[in-house]
Amino acid sequence: MKILVVGDGARENALAKSLSSHKVFALSSYINPGIKEVVDSTQGEYFLGEITPEEVRKIISRINPDMGVIGPEDPLFRGVSDEFRKEGIPVFGASKKNARIEESKVWARWLMWKYEIPGRLRYKAFSTMEEAAKFISEYGGSLAVKPAGQAGGKGVKVIADIQAYLSRDKRQAMAKSVNEIGSYYNKEGEPKIIVEEKVDGPEYTLHALSDGSTILPLPLAQDYKNAYQDGIGPETGGMGSISGPGFLLPFINQEEYDGTFDIVRKTVSAVEKETGESYTGAIAGQMILTGLWGPTVIEYYSRFGDPEASAIIPRIQDFGDLIERTATGHLSNAKLRVDERPSLVWAVSPLGYPLDRKLASGHKVSIDVPKIREIGCDVFFGSIALEENSLVTKGSRALELVCLGDFEESRRKLMKSLSFIESDVKLIYRNDIGSTILEQEEKAEIVRYTYTSRKKRGTLGVSADWSPNGGLW
């Protein structure tokens, strides 16, 4: 079988590796050394170019693939998966219409309220900065202010109304920042900013596969967004991830997993009703366990998260078979075999990421992959290109190191793995990934007590707050 994998990064490296029993072709904007390893070993072909529907159409015409696999979100938003479907070729990837569940945060919230999906938060959408600033200034509670659509995790601001004597100053500062937030999403005819009620609790992600009739939930994962040690610094695409043991995480129980899957399942059904198209590919709920609802939706992905994919895919036996069954509509007969051991992922980035991509670009890296594999870890290549037999950074997360097993033992192996990586620039990573389990278990117990009490009283999901003008939501 000939499979065309579309995308540049570590997530696509993990997907390609899972499909290595087939002949793998690839399209990306630079040569990813990990994807190239799979392409070469399966005697496929590597195509360089901009990932557009037009470019994909040309490659489909040239190689006539049996299946397509789309990794990143932007090609889904641009309708790349639809090019395969026009030619009658099975593809793993949401259609352009269905990918709107990720592309538009406003549409996703509207959908949840229309179909009364649990875990929904109150929100307001704004097309002008003035309206958003006015709302922020007048509202009396804590808020999360975000770009109204997908912006790669950029621009999210939170105002917690804890210190009342600072409230006015904080609101004025937040109101002034809406211009920056609104600049990250500027799609014609759509809102620029979304304001949501702020909630707190441990975060996690549930990915599921959907073939249009069957939905298969996968093991939970959690990514670590902040750039620097101990969860400080700007948000990134993710500096590391954990998954397991088993299907759960240490701080999420089976009932919460089931409730989360119910949310994802109802969301897929709602999307299909609105678009009239079957949902084929991956969907994920990025969740937070709160005292308001229990499992609560932060946002949705219409694809695999990254680095969550690097934590999940290596734990699943014959994952490539699940991809094929999803694309071809045969997921109902799938057997999901999961390695019970947890996984730990550390992202490695060049100095400058995420604030100065220019500073983080153009640096040479050398890595002894066989040595890393020898000690029981693996490497997925991300924002790093093979150029004239050298590995050169592209400005984002260059590598993702993955290890399965006890978190403490995996941490030791990952530290050893770092000794096999050299660069002409300082490399940034977080070695605290997976070390905050106890803290998150304690936080989960607090919110668990709150939401179970609400459930008994019949007030699950009911919010109450005060504002001087009233009725702001």
Main beta sheet: 6 strands, antiparallel
Report the radius of gyration as a whole number of Å.
22 Å
Task: Characterize the overall form.
Answer: globular
Write down the domain tally: 3
Structural class: alpha+beta
Count helical runs. Answer: 17
User: So, CATH architecture of the largest domain?
Assistant: 2-Layer Sandwich
Low-confidence stretches: 162-166
The total of beta strands comes to: 25
The first-to-last residue Cα distance is 53 Å
Strand content: 25-35%
Q: CATH H-level name of the largest domain... which superfamily?
A: ATP-grasp fold, B domain
The helix fraction, in percent, is 25-40%
EC number: 6.3.4.13
Keywords: ATP-binding, Ligase, Nucleotide-binding, Purine biosynthesis
Domain ATP-grasp: 109-328
Protein name: phosphoribosylamine--glycine ligase
